[in-house]
Structures are given as C-alpha cells and as structure tokens.
C-alpha cells in the first residue's frame, strides 16, 4: 500500500471540493430554471441536450465568447478585480467544511475535509464577509449610479444581517464549546443519540441563521443589491462576458456553501441515524473489517450530507419563485429590530438551559 502524506491528501480533497463547488454552481443555473418552470407550470430548458442538461455548458460557452466591455470612466483594474474577489472568497469558504468522516487507506486514515482549523466557523464567517467587497468594488468601479446604489445596499445589508447571524452562532458555540466545524459535527454523532443534532437544541437559532443566509447570499426576498425593477441589474449592471459569469456563479457557490454550513451546524453534517449500529453489525455479523465498514459509513454519510445540501438549495430556489421581494426599509427593519433582538434572546435562553442542565 502506497503511503499518502497528509499534505498530499489535503491537496487532493481541496481540488475535489473546488471542482465540485464549481460543478454544483454551474448546474444550479439549470436547476433554477427547471424549478421555476415547474412552479410556474411551464416548460423549462429542453433544447441543449436531453432534457436541457447541456444548457449550463451552452451558457458557459456564451459567457466565455461574449465581447468584453468596459464602460466609459470605469476603473478597469478594479472592474476586473471585483468579480474575481467575489468568486475567490466564495470558493475559499468551502475548504474547511467536513464533507465526510475518516476514511482509511492501508495504515492511513484521513478526513474528507480540505483543511482543519480550530476556528473553522470563524473562517467561513470571515471569508464570506469578504465577498461583499467584491460587490462593492465592482459597483463602484463601474462608474454607474445604479451599480453604486446596488453596492451600497449590499454593504448595509451585509452589516445588518451578519450581526444577527453571528449572534445565532454564539448559541451553537455555547453548546459545543468549539469553533471547529469538524468537532461540532462529531459532537452530533454520539452513538445512540442522533437526536443530539443542533436543530433539536437550537430551533430558534436555526431559523435566524436561515433568514440571514438569504440576505447574505443576496437571494429573494432579500435580493435588494440587484433588484432589477429598481436598479436595472444592480451592482453588475455594466458587466458582460465571463466577468458577469463570475458574479452569477459566485452567488450559487455561496448558496452551496451556506447550505453545507447549515447542514453541518444544525443537521448533523455527515452523521445519520443508527450509523454506528450499522457499522458494528457489518463488522460483527457480516465479517467485514472494521476499517472497511467505517469506509462504507463514511461514503453513506457523505452522500446523505450532499442530500441535505441539495434540499437546502432547492429551498432557496423555491423561496425565490414563491415570495415577493421586500422593500429596502422592510429589509433593514427586519434585521435590526427583529432578528438581532431574537438572537440575543436565544443566547439568554441557551445560557439558562445550560445553567440548569437541560442542555449538556
């Protein structure tokens, strides 16, 4: 058996995670159209390939081959840098997400995770927060008043909802005692106690986080930075070719990442009910080696984690084609006067439950 160094394994996992993130973002554009067509009782994409499955490839070719355009008076360097920053930060945030438990190769055992840092939650939160700078830079560098208004909206919206999102995560931190996404996931895998998933212990915190996730990803009903009816196209009004594609793809990558984070923080991540009982049954009754049984459990857990992620992605798209857009004053009022106080109340309730031993 070839010994695989840990650094080599991490490089492979990081490459695969980036590739999967881009693939999912690409086909999210197809899923968006299919779901919209289903909800509106019409035919979706059906021209490019069977059932329209080649439509994302056609869109990619169109984006790459369209004419480059720079508006008059634009800052060309920042005009290009804005969408690049938005895409880079979206991809970086997926590196610390644990997509599976340990898997064994000979004498080596590795986690299906790009990098493990004991501040993984802060990593995701910080990197995603940097994404708004890509929006702000692109909107300002376009030399367009509608783009600038969209960028200002994105910045103020980001500040408002990140506070509530951060406060909702404090309650999870109080329960878990760690910022490591891997440790938070493992703590939800206590044998025989699958009901220890944080959604059971933090239902209010999850609802707050979910609402803030819509604002963080600029999705309807909180897509005020784009808001076609008011701002033409918002911060990317002046963009064309692949620069526009980077903005659009980064939004879908962010949806994928935030769906993965919610699955990890609140729905057990790669854990599933009776996984340890299944592993022990395979090892004791079916004659499997313990390492082989654990590898199967890891594979099943990874598949189920992606099932949870896809369920959240579908929910994001369902909401887009169901609810109307908020007015800007309603958006800000919801963040400052409702979500932030609710998040503070959730922290106080969680602290009381921990103090009296209801939550351990």
Characterization of the model:
- Pfam families: NADHdh (PF00146).
- It is found in: Cell membrane; Membrane.
- It is an enzyme of class 7 (translocase).
- InterPro entries: NADH_UbQ_OxRdtase_su1/FPO, NADH_UbQ_OxRdtase_su1_CS.
- Its EC number is 7.1.1.-.
- The chain is mainly alpha-helical.
- The chain has one domain.
- It has helices spanning 6-39, 55-65, 76-92, 120-141, 145-176, 181-187, 198-201, 203-216, 228-231, 241-266, 275-284, 290-320, 328-355, and strands at 100-105, 108-112.
- The protein has a two-stranded antiparallel ribbon with strand order 1-2.
- β1 and β2 form a beta hairpin.
- α1 crosses α10 and α5 runs parallel beside α13 (328-355).
- It is globular.
- The chain starts with 5 loop residues before the first helix and ends in a 5-residue tail after the last helix.
């Amino acid at each position: 058996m070839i010994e695989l160094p840990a650094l080599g394994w991490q490089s492979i996992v990081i490459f695969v995670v980036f590739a999967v993130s881009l693939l999912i973002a690409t086909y999210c554009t197809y899923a968006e159209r299919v779901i919209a067509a289903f909800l509106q009782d019409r035919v979706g994409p059906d021209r490019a390939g069977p059932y329209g499955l080649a439509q994302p490839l056609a869109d990619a070719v169109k984006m790459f081959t369209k004419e480059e355009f720079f508006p008059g008076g634009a800052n060309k360097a920042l005009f290009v840098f804005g969408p690049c920053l938005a895409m880079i930060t979206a991809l970086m945030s997926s590196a610390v997400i644990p997509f599976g438990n340990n898997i064994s190769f000979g004498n080596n055992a590795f986690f299906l995770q790009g990098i493990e840092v004991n501040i993984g939650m802060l990593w995701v939160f910080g990197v995603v927060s940097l994404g708004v700078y890509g929006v702000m830079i692109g909107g300002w560098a376009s030399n367009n008043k509608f783009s600038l208004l969209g960028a200002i909206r994105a910045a103020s919206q980001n500040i408002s909802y990140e506070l509530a999102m951060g406060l909702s995560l404090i309650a999870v931190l109080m329960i878990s005692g760690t910022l490591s996404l891997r440790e938070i996931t493992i703590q939800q895998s206590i044998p025989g106690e699958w009901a220890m998933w944080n959604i059971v212990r933090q239902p209010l915190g999850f609802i707050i986080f979910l609402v803030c996730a819509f604002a963080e990803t600029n999705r309807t009903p909180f897509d005020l930075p784009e808001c076609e009816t008011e701002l033409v196209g918002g911060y990317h009004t002046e963009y064309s070719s692949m620069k526009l594609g980077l903005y659009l793809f980064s939004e879908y990558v962010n949806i994928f990442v935030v769906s993965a984070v919610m699955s990890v923080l609140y729905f057990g991540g790669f854990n599933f009910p009776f996984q340890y009982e299944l592993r022990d049954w395979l090892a004791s009754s079916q004659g499997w080696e313990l390492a082989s049984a654990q590898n199967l459990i890891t594979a099943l857990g990874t598949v189920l984690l992606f099932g949870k992620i896809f369920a959240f992605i579908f929910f994001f798209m369902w909401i887009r084609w169901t609810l109307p857009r908020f007015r800007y004053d309603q958006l800000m009022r919801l963040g400052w006067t409702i979500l932030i106080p609710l998040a503070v109340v959730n922290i106080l309730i969680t602290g009381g439950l921990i103090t009296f031993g209801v939550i351990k």
